[in-house]
Amino acid sequence: MKKALMWLNVLLYLLCMAQVKADDWSLSVGGGAVVFDTPWKKMPLQYAVLPYIDAEYGRWRFGVNSGIVQYRLTPKNWQLLVSAGLDYRDEGYDNLFSFNNELSDDPVFTGYRAPDSEITARLNVNWQHFSGSVQQDISAKSEGATASISYLYPLWHSGRGVQLRIGGGIQWLSGKYADTLYGIQPHNVNPAVGRIAYQADAASNYQAAIQLIYPFTQRWVLNAQLMHTRLDDSIRHSPLVDASSTTQFMLFISYRKF
Fold this sequence. Notes:
about 260 residues; mainly beta; twelve-stranded antiparallel barrel; 12 strands
């Protein structure tokens, strides 16, 4: 069901774009793959083949980098770009991106009720090589917040636009959100399978990343990124978790219409 909703969202983007003259849009489309491990006990390596859509119309932006929708609050020619909008957040066990449908066979997940997905209000800030975002649940699910800040330095840049960036960042989860994902609330307690009561505290995860941007032409671009995340003790101590870190690799090819 979650996968069907994602593809419906993609279709809605395309239908909306079809209602406006093509010349009014700045549009990138393509596709790629994501491979990642998770912190969950005995969870197989996850992978997904995904479409890539990033569309901008005036101050409005839709697609992979923008959640459901974002509205730019600052002029486009400013170095500091600020935008606000809505996003879809689903980061618990058996979430939207568990595309291969191979879940954990650890007994701790027997009868486990995974947290619901959420709609969040999102604020984005970008300045030079820094980017940051804040999200707050507005759908009365976790009522939790997350915040992140990252820095990617262009270690190498060629005249034809090839870039190699390296950097890292911090991802913060509020106590309510961390507890929703990794805590064991009373309705989920089952000591017989090792699912004992647990309350997760606010967590700070540290990330290191390397990114390659390779333009084949002015319109065709390859974007690859490898990111490693070190998990907070509040997450690692959860009965659902058996990892101290996670790794994610993404590779996308997109076509840009100017």
